């Protein structure tokens, strides 16, 4: 996915290949400590926050290359204005990462290690430290 600046709307838009059918790829993930497995195959609603920047701030975002994000079919962008990392999936912000943790962009609730499929929690903390260092 690439970012495209539309001067008429003064916003950045995510552009990717033909992803009109926005389904989460089916994959097994672990949830919690009990080892329960579930499959994600529900459509992703086309609502929620997106990356945007006005024409006065064209350098607001820097893309961060990250193997884990690639494996999740996501992209990570450092937001210079808010000093956070925004994780984007299918054009929508999936998570906001800062030194305080990982948060849902709409509800502002903390996301735990199970959200990303990390086990144990310390693996997520290590990855968070690495991606924050990459952004700096």
SSE layout and pairings?
Layout: E1 2-6, E2 11-15, E3 28-31, E4 36-39, E5 61-64, H1 67-71, E6 75-79, E7 84-89, E8 92-98, E9 101-103, H2 113-116, H3 121-135
Antiparallel strand pairs: 1-2, 3-4, 5-6, 6-7, 7-8, 8-9
N-to-C order of helices and strands = EEEEEHEEEEHH
Give me the count of strands. Answer: 9
Q: Please indicate the percent range of residues in DSSP E strands (runs of 2 or more).
A: 25-35%
Q: Report the C-alpha radius of gyration, rounded.
A: 15 Å
Shape: globular
- Poorly predicted segments: 1-47
Could you say how many structural domains there are in total? 1
- Indicate the mean pLDDT: 70
Number of helices: 3
Largest sheet: 5 strands, antiparallel
Distance between the terminal alpha carbons, to the nearest Å? 22 Å
Helix coverage percent: 10-25%
Please state the structural category: alpha+beta
Give me the side-by-side strand order of the main sheet: 5-6-7-8-9
Summarize the structure.
18% of the residues lie in helices and 32% in strands. It has three helices and nine strands, in the order βββββαββββαα.
């Amino acid at each position: 996915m690439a970012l495209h600046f539309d001067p008429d709307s003064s916003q950045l838009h995510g552009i990717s290949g033909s992803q009109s059918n926005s389904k989460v790829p089916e994959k097994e993930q672990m949830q919690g400590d009990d080892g329960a497995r579930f499959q994600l195959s529900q459509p992703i609603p086309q609502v929620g926050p997106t990356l945007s920047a006005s024409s006065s701030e064209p350098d607001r975002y820097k893309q961060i290359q990250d193997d884990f994000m690639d494996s999740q079919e996501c992209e990570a962008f450092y937001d210079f204005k808010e000093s956070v990392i925004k994780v984007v999936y299918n054009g929508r912000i999936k998570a906001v990462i800062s030194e305080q943790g990982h948060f849902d962009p709409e509800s502002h609730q903390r996301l735990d290690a199970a959200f990303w499929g990390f086990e144990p929690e310390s693996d997520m903390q290590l990855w968070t430290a690495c991606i924050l260092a990459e952004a700096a």
